[in-house]
């Protein structure tokens, strides 16, 4: 373990109004899994982009294997054996696994049948060597999220990377896929590769890494070995004070039904429905949790409930009114808020300013207008309060949202959707990408929403979150709701069984 691989010294990276990395020192040894943790906006992704040649540091030095280097581009990073696994997959769905892997590293004219056969063999070999379960001839569009991630990792290995940077790789994975990824990572380091791993899930960090470096507001707080470190210690290092994650779930007498889903059917790709005759009702003052492995219809269900997808069978009622065929706008105006799972596609407009995103879809409200004009001071006050309440790390609310860290982008969406006194809140993966402080805050907000009489539908792949917040839990599998439990009636392990279709005999997978 004494084999030095990466040495960053005094790395400083500034953006207008922020010091994203402030004299950061980081040492990574060959063959270790080195985690980087820290609050949203602490500077983790920025530091990795510096190391991968996407950003140039303003100050500081980088040494790779003992030699001082300048990493002016990702190409140079790869030459030095440094590879980064993309968080937003950049794969081409209609190409096969092997085609995607060689794409970009081969000249176009080399894309012949012979090269293809060679590439397939090489990919199969890499899979065997590191224990990846992946068919090189499969079309990428037919793969699960976990499998697509494996393609991205193989792609980086194929280019000869010795160090793999994974920025929040587990944010998009379900528990089983996380286990599989960790097995792959362990095999990689056992064979001499090195991994830098970023995650907000401290249990994961402690389970997989050797060393953990904590960043806070751009600075290194310290590097500690995972062995002997507790979650509470890590959390305190990250936040700078002890963090208590104990949530009271006071009894609330559910009121009248607000969200009534009756035999709802939503078309999927091809002839199979994505959602098959799903029924449930959520009352005022109730949190209804839906657990499920991604790709079992939850996405389509949520989009249908907020008017973004066509409902072809059954009925959807909000506060007793039939909105089965209503538009997304009409549904929003009825007081239905939506925290989308894919914030880049549904939740925010990246090039628009933070303040604009904060009122997106609500800019015609009385408090934001002055006749035909925008009420600038009113908007500014509102945005300032939200930024404060949610501790959104932003230097200037006029800046485009794309300048925010991933977690802070999510906070903008969550802050907006909680803001306009909704009656019904449809929250899909609301804490994905959030740090522990922000996660706790959002969980408290969900409970406060419940206490104030909102009907909350919570869709999450995080079973801990589902179990600690929900009054009732439904499990979706193959587009159908296959089980429903009252609070306290089911464990995470049992939910897991239903989620993979094993909880009920004779239930065939339709998805
Ligand atoms: N391209 C950019 N332009 C301007 N500011 C940026 C840019 N990229 C990052 N920042 C700022 O730098 C700081 C660090 O951001 P970074 O993305 O590195 O955080 P992070 O630790 O990865 O957070 P998260 O956990 O939310 O992903 C933030 O204040 C962010 O707003
Ligand atoms: Mg980040």
TrEMBL record:
This is ABC transporter ATP-binding protein. SUPFAM superfamilies: P-loop containing nucleoside triphosphate hydrolases. Keywords: ATP-binding, Cell membrane, Membrane, Nucleotide-binding, Repeat, Translocase, Transport. Residues 6-242, 259-503 form the ABC transporter domain. GO terms for molecular function: ATP binding; ATP hydrolysis activity. InterPro entries: AAA+_ATPase, ABC_carbohydrate_import_ATPase, ABC_transporter-like_ATP-bd, ABC_transporter-like_CS, P-loop_NTPase. It is found in: Cell membrane. It comes from the Bacteria. It is a peripheral membrane protein. PROSITE patterns: ABC_TRANSPORTER_1, ABC_TRANSPORTER_2. Transmembrane segments: none annotated. Gene3D superfamilies: P-loop containing nucleotide triphosphate hydrolases. One of its GO terms (cellular component) is plasma membrane. SMART domains: AAA.
